[in-house]
Specification:
heterodimer, A: 8 helices, B: mainly alpha, 3 helices
Chain lengths: 232, 98
């Protein structure tokens, strides 16, 4: 009973404060009043997480295909995985994990008001993203020069399972690579915003959301790596 | 400061981030090493997926700050993964007992 009385009171208070904040005419988006601009921190983050859930289902569909075909064509998948470059895959796994750390570190830096540190951490992440894509380029290039690409004459002579394995390999790593490029671009915008001081120690939601996206790219790779490179 | 009304979580120290990174790198090496051993059947896939789940839990909790956010985020995340599990599970039922 006591709780019931207390709760509505709190919510109405919060509601009031956010209402007055939104409606007060003296809330321009000018830098001079920077400290009083209404920031819907929670709302921004809910939105980002909802988007991440949709990404999970996007890749989830591909993982579903992988799971079904792995159970149907196990020998072909094992054979296919043996032909993937484990060293390249491992290097990409390790550097992507380090880049995730760097993004998390950049948030720590900006929250401690260390703008230069945040820019440096993000720049190193972007360099890692470029290295990741270059690795992918060489990896795909080697496969393609061996005649292993979707609809290649050599692949068409191989079994149905091998075709499915390489088809999924190109689709999943390609879609993931696209996410790496988008994520790195979002982080680049963050670097620009840090230079312009529109990301600050008390308004860093842009950095946090771009970081969340980057971590998702890392999360997906954490599953892609064992599924494609480590099937025994 | 008025605009600080949002749910503030503590700043994660560089030291704890680095510890998480080292754990992630260790698990990566472990999963590569273990994959060279043949456990038979689909056991290898299950083991490597288990390690991958541990790694992603670390990323979610510490890098993505789920540990410090409102419970809402963790609950909705687990729900989305649960829905994916239903999708995959029911498809398997369909494919195998058709």
């Amino acid at each position: 009973m006591y709780k019931n009385q207390e709760n509505p009171d709190i919510t109405s208070q919060n509601g009031m404060s956010s209402l007055t904040k939104k409606n007060t005419p003296s809330q321009p988006h000018s830098q001079a009043h920077g400290h009083h601009v209404h920031i819907d921190y929670e709302g921004d983050k809910y939105g980002m997480w909802l988007f991440l859930y949709s990404e999970i289902l996007l890749f989830g569909g591909l993982f579903l295909l992988y799971a079904i075909y792995l159970s149907r064509y196990t020998p072909d998948f094992i054979e296919g995985a043996k032909h993937l470059n484990l060293i390249m895959g491992s290097i990409n796994t390790i550097i992507l994990l380090i880049s995730s750390f760097a993004v998390a570190a950049s948030i720590t830096a900006i929250r401690r008001n260390n703008r230069k540190g945040a820019i440096l951490w993000l720049s190193s992440t972007m360099i890692i993203a470029v290295v990741f894509i270059i690795n992918k380029y060489f990896e795909w290039g080697a496969k393609i020069s061996h005649g292993l690409y979707p609809n290649s004459p050599e692949l068409l002579e191989m079994s149905h399972g091998s075709n499915l394995f390489y088809g999924l390999y190109y689709t999943v790593t390609g879609l993931h690579g696209l996410h790496v490029i988008i994520g790195a671009s979002a982080l680049m915008i963050c670097v620009i915003k840090l230079f312009r001081k529109t990301i600050t120690s008390d308004n860093y939601i842009w950095l946090e959301n771009a970081g969340l996206y980057w971590h998702l790219v890392d999360l997906i790779w954490i599953f892609v790596f064992p599924l494609f490179y480590l099937v025994v | 400061m008025q605009n600080q009304q949002h749910h503030e979580h503590p700043i994660t120290s560089y030291r704890s981030l680095l510890t998480v990174l080292l754990a992630l790198l260790f698990l990566t090496v472990l999963t590569i090493a273990i994959s060279r051993i043949d456990f038979g059947g689909h056991n290898n896939t299950i083991v490597s997926l288990f390690i991958a789940s541990c790694k992603s839990t670390l990323v979610l909790l510490y890098f993505m700050h789920l540990k410090y956010e409102r419970k809402f985020f963790a609950i909705t995340f687990v729900t989305s993964v649960f829905i994916l599990a239903i999708l995959i599970g029911l498809t398997f039922v369909d494919v195998h007992f058709r």
